[in-house]
């Protein structure tokens, strides 16, 4: 891990165009696991738009320099160093040939060219290409690539790279070759190669213009039976992008390759997407409903990058959300359309709720911590640390606001203009914003603040009804409250906030909406208010009765709404709001309010009580057959412990856990009969179907089972869970049954049924790595007890033969699951969780800094906890800071401690 003592800070304000450009690249690889030779021939010229440089500076890491030639002649002016190659006195336009050697088998960082399971793979985003060859490894240097791969035919029968296959054939000594050409200019981060013993599921489809396309999903031979869903997801993605945005697949073939050792979910390399196996492999026995949905979303996301990221890419890494925020928005819309089309608002709302839950729990927390940054950051030390929830999820919400303002047609017009202007270019977030503005004839200058201001805005709402005038005033005020320092430093003024609102009458029906100055009421009962000032009042006229406002419908902007609803009003919205998102939101507000009150009492040791009205509100949702099963499951799911702890003035995970468990038990016991009835009604007998409808029934049934496991006497739940485990024909039902058994056992001092199922699960799926990941995660996230703390289970599992710290999926399944998804156990009063965390961050830092940095973020909000926990966290952070070497982890812990 080569790093400097004081890593430099890279600033957006310092951007300068490259002094040289590279027009073509011809790469030749002689693939040998511990000594791969790379010959790189480039056509280089000075950039007429940049200042003249005295020398050419190329990036390079962990490379052995062999030789350099300029225009075919040996070049003596090349000087290799730890971070690259300097070439003095080069011509203005020339051919540069470099030969170097790398060691893929020793590359545990999984960045650059590496070996996994005996096969070769690459990961070049963000700065991995410099570990393959010396290069101008920056996204605004775009070239066309020709790639020749040579390797042992017996060991590596499949040789893949970007673009179209030109030729392949045999070589002497049992070797063979393949030559690929990508006709589209691309930055180096989109380069990819794969070599190994793989097989493919193939499909041929016709594009919208009638051209034949070859689609391939490449996997290890034993996984071929788990590729159908990924292939179907790819076909759906291709069709959707043609229909929704008029964007057609531009290559003759499109390939997906699955690898088990991968730092991310997937990578959109042009025409050769490399995926973590987690987001490719699925069959009913090994994958849950969530896995099926995630595969569809991630396959869509990476395919959609073919245009939003590849054909138009980022000028620099500060513009990362240009491709990621936009493409997350596109994959969210794709998933919503797959679930409900354009017209089924209830089904689309379920997807929307799921996305907002993630945003609130993770991105809002990021906005409140030391790593808070704008959607377009102003500086970084290590770019890998800025693949964040803010860049992705908040970036997606910023894109969604354009569509909220302009509608689907207006947004499509903006996208069309964006591609017309910038196809084949490396551009900025401002270029995207200008295209949307110009296509719709709007001034979006103020919208730039969404890209440059950190923090989560708060919108406080005041209302006033004038019965005599039949007027209803809605006053909106925006600010940031007690924002993190990073947020305060970046604020430049009020944001433009599309604020969707409805007014509900006493009978539960939506009222007509007519703003002052308008001649008639709107046809829609939801109105998007363009809120652009620090404070603004909107007056609705001809309001015949005092309404109840339905605020920020469909979560029309990534803000926190402050409005003092009474419990009765929240219950009314939960029962009647026509906006499915806000109906769910009312229930969450009601539950959050009760849970925080109970947590405050639990922190002082006071007795806990839950009002009968809350139980009644939950009962109404549980028994309302007019609501879809998937919606009911989401509405009946309590806010997470992590989210609740963040809402407290001083986070107290133990108190939150006590409060949440109390409510779960109360709801379980009070509604036992209803839970049992729902469990029986929503069984899905017969062959497994990976459809949204079937998944919704399973989700509600399994939620009922998890509540039943909370009963004071869980014998019936244990019987149901054991029977479900034994009879399950799908991983969704089997894994939920196992989790229910584990939690029932924790509450009742252990059970033979839980251990029996746990042992059976491992033996049944020992040869399925992704399922064994679930086995580790289920144990890491179980409830635990004073007699059997989960950290003891986790420490023991660290020495299990199936555990491997070098595999990111396995590390995430056990260590990350415990540290990030089991707050009550991780935040133990004795600080044992933090000591464990520190040891694992340090160990991972020596192997894979990217993975270590993601784990390091578990303690970045340490200042918000109770004093005892705070002191233990600080000690753990200081230990990590004193021992880690990578800039990835140091940036995280130093910002946390600053």
UniProtKB/TrEMBL annotation:
Species whose genome carries this gene: Paraburkholderia ginsengiterrae
EC number of this enzyme: 3.4.11.2
Cofactor(s) needed by this chain: Zn(2+)
Residue ranges of domain Peptidase M1 membrane alanine aminopeptidase in the record: 230-450
Superkingdom to which the source organism belongs: Bacteria
Domain Aminopeptidase N-like N-terminal span(s) in chain numbering: 107-190
A Pfam family reported for this protein in Swiss-Prot or TrEMBL: Peptidase_M1
Domain Peptidase M1 alanyl aminopeptidase C-terminal: 568-898
Protein name: Aminopeptidase N
Any GO molecular function: aminopeptidase activity
Keywords, alphabetical: Aminopeptidase, Hydrolase, Metal-binding, Metalloprotease, Protease, Zinc
InterPro entries per UniProt: Aminopeptidase_N-like_N, Aminopeptidase_N-like_N_sf, PepN_Ig-like_sf, Peptidase_M1, Peptidase_M1_dom, Peptidase_M1_pepN, Peptidase_M1_pepN_C, Peptidase_M1_pepN_C_sf
Domain annotation Peptidase M1 alanyl aminopeptidase Ig-like fold: ranges: 455-564
């Amino acid at each position: 891990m080569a790093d400097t003592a004081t890593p430099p800070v890279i600033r957006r304000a310092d951007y300068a165009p490259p002094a040289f450009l590279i027009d073509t690249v011809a790469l030749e690889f002689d693939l040998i696991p511990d000594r791969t030779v790379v010959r790189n021939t480039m056509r280089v010229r000075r950039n007429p738009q940049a200042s003249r440089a005295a020398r050419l500076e190329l990036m390079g890491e962990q490379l052995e320099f062999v030789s350099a030639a300029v225009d075919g002649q040996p070049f003596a002016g090349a000087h290799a160093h730890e971070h690259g190659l300097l070439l003095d006195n080069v011509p203005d336009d020339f051919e540069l040939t470099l030969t170097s050697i790398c060691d893929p088998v020793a590359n545990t960082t999984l960045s650059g060219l590496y070996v996994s399971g005996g096969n070769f793979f690459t990961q070049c985003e963000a700065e991995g290409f410099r570990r393959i060859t010396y290069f101008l490894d920056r996204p605004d240097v775009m070239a066309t690539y020709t790639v020749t791969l040579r390797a042992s035919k017996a060991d590596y029968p499949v040789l893949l790279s970007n673009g179209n296959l030109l030729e392949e054939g045999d070589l002497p000594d049992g070797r063979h070759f393949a030559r690929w050409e990508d006709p589209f200019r691309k930055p180096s981060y989109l380069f990819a190669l794969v070599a190994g013993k793989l097989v493919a599921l193939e499909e041929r489809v016709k594009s919208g213009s009638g051209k034949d396309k070859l689609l391939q999903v490449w996997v290890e031979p034993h996984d071929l039976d788990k590729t159908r869903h990924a292939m179907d997801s790819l076909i759906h993605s291709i069709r959707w992008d043609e229909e929704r945005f008029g964007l057609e697949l531009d290559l003759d073939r499109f390939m997906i390759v699955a690898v088990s050792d991968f730092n991310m979910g997937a990578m959109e390399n042009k025409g050769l997407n490399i995926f973590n196996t987690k987001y490719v492999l699925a069959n009913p026995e090994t994958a849950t409903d969530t896995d099926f949905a995630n595969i569809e979303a991630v396959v869509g996301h990476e395919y959609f990058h073919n245009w939003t990221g590849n054909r138009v890419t980022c000028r620099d890494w500060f513009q990362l959300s240009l491709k990621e925020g936009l493409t997350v928005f596109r994959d969210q819309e794709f998933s919503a359309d797959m679930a409900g089309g354009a017209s089924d608002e209830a089904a689309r709302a379920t997807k929307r709720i799921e996305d907002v839950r993630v945003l609130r729990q993770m991105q809002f927390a990021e906005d409140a911590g030391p790593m808070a940054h704008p959607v377009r950051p102003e500086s970084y030390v290590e770019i890998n640390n800025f693949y964040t929830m803010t860049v992705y999820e908040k970036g997606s919400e910023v894109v969604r606001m354009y569509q909220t303002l302009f509608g689907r047609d207006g947004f499509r017009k903006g996208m069309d203009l964006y591609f017309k202007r910038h196809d084949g270019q490396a551009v900025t977030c401002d270029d995207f914003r200008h295209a949307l503005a110009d296509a719709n004839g709007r001034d979006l200058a103020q919208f730039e603040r969404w890209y440059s201001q950190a923090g989560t805005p708060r919108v406080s709402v005041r209302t006033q009804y004038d019965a005599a005038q039949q007027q209803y005033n809605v006053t909106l005020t925006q600010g940031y409250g007690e924002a993190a320092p990073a947020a305060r430093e970046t604020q430049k003024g009020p944001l433009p906030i599309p604020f969707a609102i409805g007014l509900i009458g006493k009978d539960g029906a939506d009222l007509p909406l007519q703003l002052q100055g308008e001649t008639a009421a709107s046809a829609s009962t939801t109105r998007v208010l363009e809120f652009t000032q620090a404070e603004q009042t909107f007056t609705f006229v001809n309001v015949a009765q005092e309404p109840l406002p339905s605020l920020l419908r469909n979560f029309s902007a990534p803000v926190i709404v402050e409005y003092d609803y009474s419990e009765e009003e929240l219950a009314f919205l939960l029962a009647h709001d026509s906006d499915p998102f806000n109906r769910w939101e009312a229930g969450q507000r009601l539950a959050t309010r009760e849970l925080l009150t109970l947590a405050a009492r639990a922190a002082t040791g006071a007795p806990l009580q839950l009002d009968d009205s809350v139980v009644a509100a939950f009962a109404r949702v549980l028994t309302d057959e007019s609501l879809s099963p998937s919606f009911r499951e989401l509405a009946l799911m309590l806010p997470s412990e992590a989210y609740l702890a963040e809402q407290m003035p001083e986070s107290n995970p133990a108190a939150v856990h006590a409060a949440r468990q109390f409510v779960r038990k109360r709801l379980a016991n009070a509604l036992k009969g209803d839970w049992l009835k729902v469990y029986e009604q929503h069984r899905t007998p017969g062959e497994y179907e990976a459809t949204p409808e079937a998944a919704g029934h399973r989700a509600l049934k399994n939620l009922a089972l998890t509540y039943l496991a909370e009963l004071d006497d869980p014998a019936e739940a244990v019987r149901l869970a054991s029977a479900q485990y034994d009879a399950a024909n799908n991983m969704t039902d089997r894994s939920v049954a196992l989790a229910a058994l584990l939690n029932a056992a924790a509450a009742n001092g252990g059970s033979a049924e839980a251990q029996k199922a746990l042992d059976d699960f491992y033996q049944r799926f020992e040869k399925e790595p992704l399922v064994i990941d679930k086995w580790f995660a289920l144990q890491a996230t179980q409830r635990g007890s004073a007699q059997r703390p989960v950290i003891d289970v986790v420490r023991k599992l660290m020495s299990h033969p199936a555990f491997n710290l070098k595999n990111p999926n396995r590390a995430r399944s056990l260590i990350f699951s415990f540290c990030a998804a089991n707050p009550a156990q991780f935040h133990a009063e004795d600080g044992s969780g933090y000591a464990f965390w520190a040891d694992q961050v340090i160990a991972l830092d020596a192997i894979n800094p990217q993975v270590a940095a993601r784990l390091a973020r578990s303690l970045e909000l340490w200042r918000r906890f109770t004093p005892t926990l705070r002191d233990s966290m600080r000690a753990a952070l200081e230990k990590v800071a004193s021992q880690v070497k990578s800039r990835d982890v140091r940036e995280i812990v130093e910002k946390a401690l600053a």
